[in-house]
Specification:
Blueprint (H helix, E strand, L loop, with lengths): L1 H15 L5 H4 L11 H12 L14 H6 L1 H8 L17 H12 L6
């Protein structure tokens, strides 16, 4: 009789338990810091853009200029290789660098 009660209890316990994977119960959302101009974007601009886009009509030497032209920048840095409008001229940003610009815009174009 004890064996039947034990098996019944075990069966009820197993039926009552949910079967969920670790991924279903864990918060696997990646923790990603907010992208800012000074910390993330400015170093890329200084290394890849300022040599051609220094003071003048198409300057990209400060936060306001880069923020104002972000849509054009995103268009130009994402063009395919061989496109005459691709920037930077004579090279390309890495996909990680491009993603920083995309996320910076999505995060609200934060300066600091």
């Amino acid at each position: 009789m004890k064996k039947i009660i034990y098996i019944s209890s075990l069966a009820i316990t197993l039926i009552a338990c949910e079967s969920r994977t670790y991924e279903e119960i864990s918060d696997n959302t990646p923790i990603v810091e907010k992208i800012t101009y000074n910390k993330d974007v400015k170093p890329i601009v200084e290394a890849n853009c300022v040599s051609c886009h220094s003071p003048g009509a198409q300057a990209l030497t400060n936060y306001d200029q880069v923020k104002t032209h972000i849509d054009n920048i995103l268009d130009r840095i994402q063009r395919p290789n061989g496109d005459p409008g691709k920037m930077p001229q004579g090279g390309a940003l890495t996909q990680t660098q491009i993603n920083i610009f995309i996320k910076w815009k999505a995060d609200g174009l934060v300066e600091n």
